[in-house]
Amino acid sequence: MRKRAASIGKKRSVFRWRSHEPSRLETFSDAVFAFAVTLIVVSLEVPRTFDELFEVFKGFFSFAACFGLLFLIWNSQNIFFRRYGLNNAYITFLNAALLFVVLMYVYPLKFLFVVLFSNGTYNDHGHIITMITDNQVPVLMAVYHAGYMTIYLIFLLMYIHARAKATALELSPAELFETNTFIFINLINACLGLAGLILVFLLPRAYKGWTGMIYMSIPFAFWLLFLFRGKKARKQFGEITEQVS
């Protein structure tokens, strides 16, 4: 599955894959991600009332959001290993840290999206229960921002390490340029998480829950980055064609 996922969009890639089969480290990572997905499963029981069925339907949206984010993290890790094939002690440590953070944040992430999609309440056998108070919202947002920042800081360190190994990996100029682009991508994401964390502490309590809106700037930030890097790439390399693996 990793090999097939990595091959999607490969036609436009400037990279030649340096790892074609999953290593034991990647196999272990897949097991951890599978376990993380299991933890966010909507429900293991068949609903017995309409109210329970409605609660399950509300859970589908939070499950979809969590699953999408977990898939993005898994795919980013997958692409990194396909491109560079690094399995040294430093990368193993960073990958272990990434998996640890993913597992630690599965429940907080699910809770956050359940709150968003259920308006902060759930039906417990006909009783409407408030899931979170106004005083608890800043803590939840701080936890989310810290997790987001940590995950992309780990990816940033992984790509910086890959750039440092450019000679050993025999990275072409185009591959090195693309590596630097991904360093900027992960730096932007990490900085957004840090900015959200700072805003949680600086803004009045009534606005702390809205700090998640900072991630709405991601498409605009990436558009500017790709616009600038694209022009620079065309200037340096012209029209980059696919490299044969």
Write down the secondary-structure element order.
Answer: HHHHHEEHHHHH
Low-confidence parts: 241-245
Q: Measured on Cα atoms, how large is the radius of gyration? A: 21 Å
| Multimeric state | single chain
Largest sheet: 2 strands, antiparallel
- The overall number of domains is 2
Helix content: over 70%
The total strand number stands at 2
Task: Please tell me about this protein's structure.
Strand 1 (121-124) and strand 2 (127-130) form a beta hairpin. Strands 1-2 form a two-stranded antiparallel sheet. It has 2 domains: 19-131, no CATH class; 133-245, no CATH class. Helix 2 (24-39) packs parallel to helix 4 (89-104), helix 4 runs antiparallel to helix 6 and helix 8 runs antiparallel to helix 10. Helices cover 70% and strands 3% of the residues. It has 245 residues and is mainly α. Residues 241-245 have low confidence and may be disordered.
Summarize the structure.
The chain is mostly helical and 245 residues long. The protein is built from ten helices and two strands.
Fold blueprint:
Layout: H1 2-7, H2 24-39, H3 50-84, H4 89-104, H5 106-118, E1 121-124, E2 127-130, H6 137-164, H7 166-169, H8 173-202, H9 205-208, H10 218-237
Antiparallel strand pairs: 1-2
Helix pairs in contact: 2-3, 2-4, 3-5, 3-6, 4-6, 6-8, 8-10
